[in-house]
Specification:
- The structure is a single chain.
- This protein has five helices and 15 strands.
- It is α/β, with parallel strands linked by helices.
- It has a three-stranded mixed sheet with strand order 2-5-3, with helices on one face.
Length: 252
């Protein structure tokens, strides 16, 4: 019997059931279970939405497409409890039935909004840029510092300094070793006194007078420098600094 003839029998069957089955709660239940639902299931097929929460982005997308659905909007959200690039939530939720081809939206974790600056001193510029990017930071300005003790192009210092916490996508300034000779004064602002002293020594410069001043910055952070950043200097030149005083020491 052709499918067309089968379809034509449905109205007759429905009429027979409506006439033959008393209009009671039991009758309605039988009508829904054995007539309406089979029709809906047969002619309006649905599939179960896969649960991809907790999967990494690539695996979630593959699972969605292989299940007959398509990828909808993908948003990145901050979630310190979920590793970066893993699915935090999905819409519609997994386990529900929906028509194949429906778009499934994903919320993907970008991790916490604050990250720790990695230590990239001594790396090549390319390696340092890759490490900073993986940590969720941006690569800002690249400065040149003459550093005879390191091969050309190696990272001498970064700002913010390694080990400190910074907002995600904060630009990090990278200072790399440059050829011997006259060179621009490095920027020491924002680093602690110990780091500044090391940078000066590595450049053949001499740390001169260091004064303290009250500041909201942590103790020892360089507030003012002379020569200023970018001014030409040579071996043996002296740098003077003003750094943040400890809380108990406000002597200018």
């Amino acid at each position: 019997m052709s499918s067309r003839r089968k379809r034509r029998r449905w109205p007759t069957l429905l009429l027979w059931l409506l006439v033959g089955v008393p209009v009671t709660a039991v009758g309605l239940l039988l009508l829904v279970n054995y007539v309406v639902m089979p029709i809906v299931t047969r002619y309006h097929q649905e599939a179960m939405v896969p649960n991809v929460v907790g999967m990494d982005r690539a695996a979630a997308i593959q699972t969605i497409t292989q299940s007959g659905f398509r990828l909808g909007e993908v948003r990145t959200v901050s979630d310190p409890a979920v590793p970066t690039d893993r699915v935090v939530a999905q819409y519609p939720p997994g386990g529900r039935f929906s028509k194949p081809g429906r778009a499934i939206q994903l919320d993907v974790s970008r991790g916490p909004d604050r990250v720790t600056v990695p230590d990239v001193v001594g790396m090549s510029l390319d390696q340092a840029q890759a490490e900073l990017s993986t940590a969720g930071l941006l690569v800002g300005e690249v400065e040149s510092l003459r550093t005879p003790s390191l091969p050309l192009g190696r990272v001498v210092a970064i700002r913010p300094s390694a080990g400190t916490e910074a907002e995600r996508l904060t630009p990090v300034v990278i200072a790399v070793s440059a050829p011997v000779g006259s060179f621009p004064m490095p920027n020491l602002l924002g680093v602690n006194l110990e780091t500044a002293s090391g940078i000066l020594a590595s450049q053949g410069l001499i740390l001169g007078e260091v004064r303290h001043a009250p500041s909201g910055e942590p103790a020892g952070i360089v507030l003012v420098q002379y020569p200023e950043e970018g001014m030409p200097v040579r071996d043996g030149d002296t740098a003077r600094l003003i750094v943040a005083a400890p809380a108990q020491d406000s002597t200018p």
